[in-house]
Design brief:
Low-confidence stretches: none
Oligomer: single chain
Number of strands: 10
Largest sheet: 4 strands, antiparallel
Mean pLDDT: 75
Order of helices and strands: EEHEEHHEEHEEEHHE
Number of helices: 6
Strand order of the largest sheet: 1-2-3-4
Distance between the termini: 65 Å
Structural class: alpha+beta
Radius of gyration: 28 Å
């Protein structure tokens, strides 16, 4: 629709740059063409496109590589030097349980992750060991579906974490 205004104010027209079927859809784009007449008789055309960004649908997942790097940095900066030697075993790095949950959650883009650890203490340990064995990793998807076997169901992601990022998925720091 073209709205005529005073010649000094110009002409403002809202048009769609899309085909007619697409222009009737409820998209978040607005196209404007403004034609201004200058004092010297020439016309000036301004085409604008306003886009409304949906802040609600903003991606709530972070890149897995950034989380892994932050986790490695925290381990190097904040862990006891004697413990660091034990965290790197057989080309795998043992990470804290909360960090591992966050890494898996963002990699799979799921609602939540639960990691069950073996609470049994060995017979000869006088103090509690900060490194615990993982019994199971439970994945809760967005639709409410619960997956109990992370290694079998998400084998590609499991292999990526263990082979590419060298994360230990057998033990965690509690």
């Amino acid at each position: 629709m073209i709205k005529k205004r005073n010649l000094t104010n110009g002409v403002n027209a809202n048009i769609s740059l899309e085909p007619s079927a697409a222009s009737q859809s409820t998209n978040n784009l607005t196209n404007n063409i403004i034609i201004n007449k200058r004092d010297d008789g020439k016309e000036e055309i301004v085409i604008t496109r306003d886009v409304e960004l949906n802040e609600e649908k903003e991606e709530k997942f972070i890149d897995v590589r950034n989380i892994i790097l932050e986790t490695y940095a925290k381990i190097l900066l904040h862990q006891d030097k004697a413990l660091i030697v034990n965290l790197i075993s057989k080309n795998c790095i043992i990470v804290p349980i909360d960090s591992l949950k966050e890494i898996i959650k963002n990699m799979l883009k799921v609602e939540s992750v639960e990691i069950f650890i073996n609470e049994e203490v060995g017979c000869c340990s006088a103090k509690t060991n900060p490194i615990k064995k993982i019994d199971a990793i439970k994945i809760i998807k967005e639709n409410g579906e619960i997956v109990m076997d992370f290694k079998q169901v998400f084998n590609k992601e499991f292999n990526t974490l263990t082979q590419n990022y060298h994360l230990c998925l057998k033990y965690v720091i509690d």
